[in-house]
Design a protein that fits this description.
The chain is α/β, with parallel strands linked by helices. The protein contains 8 helices and 7 strands. Helix 1 crosses helix 3. The termini are far apart. The protein binds S-adenosylmethionine (SAM). It comes from Chondromyces crocatus. Pfam families: GidB. Specifically methylates the N7 position of a guanine in 16S rRNA.
Length: about 270
């Protein structure tokens, strides 16, 4: 199935992508996606170039986003991929949280997205940040087929040229199964799949082997959960650009273990 994107849909996609330019943390920021975090240090995000658009080998992320959203709209007529009721909802739902994540994720890391569904936020992040190695975990076969087909089309067109040496990998299964296998991820992301507290536990298990693990919890307006041994490093509040929905992206880092008084390096 091919992807055709109307000029109106293309304009909506461009609006959400360009809202991300404001996340660089300097100059004028659009109110919509301007984040208000507890810690600063946002990374430049530029649709069609730099961190958000092109990997080191020249993938075309913004173009890929249009192809992918066009495919979501086309496949959604046959299989249940999204509950979006109009184009504003579709573009905000698919893209806006990923634009925020893409501006804040560390360079070159192994990232897992649990419950990717039609690709939000994991596939969008893979397109916008082609330095990252994404694993997309999804149990439902029809959604797995959609994701694999779409990634194939994006690779073929050259929109996806992963800088980390591999294309986004789609793993069919549940997050619980992946977490049991001592996985090696640095960053765990997920949206609308598990209750926030349960997701935080699972995210911690998925990144247990990493030197500097991070877990992101994506919320509407509710308070972020707490997890012993982890702390909130950023609490980003923003509105989706097209629908004005209030959102929150919370970044958790594992606390360094407290040093034992009197302990020596010789042990
Ligand atoms: C409501 S959809 C959200 C999809 C996407 N993350 C989004 O925000 O648009 C939840 C997705 O998680 C998947 N899912 C449900 N339980 C899961 C689990 N335990 N592990 C991994 N995926 C799961 C479902 O098949 C579904 O595609």
């Amino acid at each position: 199935m091919t992807s055709t994107v109307s000029p109106a849909l293309e304009q909506r996609i461009a609006r959400v992508l360009s809202a991300g330019v404001g996340l660089r943390g300097d100059g004028e920021s659009p109110a919509s996606l301007k984040t208000d975090g507890v810690a600063g240090g946002t990374e430049l995000i530029e649709p069609g170039g730099g961190a958000a658009g092109e990997g080191a080998e020249g993938g075309r992320g913004a173009e890929g986003v249009s192809t992918w959203i066009g495919l979501v709209a086309a496949w959604n007529a046959r299989i249940d991929l999204t509950a979006a009721r109009n184009e504003d909802e579709l573009v905000d739902l698919m893209l806006a949280d990923a634009v925020v994540l893409a501006a804040h994720l560390p360079q070159g890391k192994r990232v897992v997205d649990v419950g990717t569904g039609a690709g939000a936020p994991g596939l969008a992040v893979a397109l916008l940040r082609q330095d990252l190695a994404l694993t997309l975990v999804e149990p439902l076969q029809k959604r797995v087929s959609f994701l694999r087909n779409t990634i194939g089309a994006l690779l073929q067109s050259g929109a996806l040229k992963p800088g980390a040496g591999r294309a986004p990998f789609v793993e069919r299964g549940r997050g619980e199964e992946v977490a049991r296998r001592a996985p090696a991820f640095d960053v765990a992301i997920s949206r609308a799949t598990l209750a926030p507290g349960r997701w935080l536990d699972m995210g911690a298990a998925l990144t247990a082997g990493a030197a500097a693990p991070e877990v992101w919890v994506l919320l509407a307006r509710e308070e972020p959960p707490a997890l012993t041994g982890w702390e909130v490093a950023e609490d980003l509040r923003y509105r989706w650009p097209l629908t004005g929905v209030e959102r929150r992206a919370v970044r958790y880092l594992r606390r360094a273990p407290a040093s034992t008084p009197g302990a020596t390096s010789e042990g």
